[in-house]
Amino acid sequence: MSDRISVLFVCLGNICRSPSAEGVFRHLASEQGVQDRLSIDSCGTGNWHIGKAPDERSTAAAARRGIDISDLKARQFCADDLDRFDYVLVMDRSNLADVREVWHQNGGTEPRLFLDFGASQLAEVPDPYYGGQDGFEHVLDLIHEASLGLLEDIRGRLA
Questions:
Q1: Which residues are known catalytic residues?
Q2: pLDDT digits over 34-60, tens only?
Q3: Residue 2: pLDDT above 70?
Q4: Which residues form the Phosphotyrosine protein phosphatase I domain (predicted)?
Q5: Model's pTM, two decimal places?
Q6: Rounded CA gap, 73 and 43, in Å?
Q7: Longest Cα separation, the chain
């Protein structure tokens, strides 16, 4: 397989879930010593927040875990992402439907639900945007667990 693996996390606005996933995954990849073999990015299916930093609540929740996502900037998903990334991982079924529509028209990497890599009974990472701080912590827990499963899958490809 390739000596470099690329991973894209996708949510709706790219200010809560997907930048959190990017940050957590980068952090865990660094801890496991594989960060130099990975290219990691995030984006949103919507265009409302292009160029903006992650939501302050996401940034604060990540910072409490020693993860800095404050320098990330939102961008919108594009069809070329399906050709550039080995993994296109979406946070919920709505995001999956949006990205699959582009995939059906253009081909490339087939998008998957991110939590497929975790052991949670949940299929989707819930959007914490309209909730309280506990929602952001819950999202980070789900992301952390799925990231460990994703890293295990990637290690098999890098071997």
A1: 11, 17, 127
A2: 999 999 999 999 999 999 999 999 999
A3: no
A4: 5-153
A5: 0.97
A6: 9
A7: 43
What would the 3-class secondary structure string for 63-111 be?
Answer: HHCCCCCCCCCCCECCCCHHHHCCEEEECCHHHHHHHHHHHHHHCCCCC
User: Residue 91 corresponds to which tokens in the numbers above?
Assistant: 């946070």
List the one residue out of 109, 105, 106 whose CA is nearest residue 10: 109
Give CA–CA dist 152/60, Å, rounded. Answer: 28
Strand partners, 89: 9, 112
Q: Would you list the domain boundaries of the chain? A: 5-158
Query: Using CA atoms, how far apart are residues 70 and 2, in angstroms rounded to an integer?
Result: 30
CATH for 5-158 (3.90.1150.10, 3.40.50.1970, 3.40.50.2300, 3.30.1490.20): 3.40.50.2300
Task: Tally Cβ neighbours within 10 Å of residue 10.
Answer: 27
CB 64 within 8 A of CB 45: no
Q: What are the strands of the beta sheet with 112-113, ordered from one edge?
A: 38-44, 5-11, 87-90, 112-113
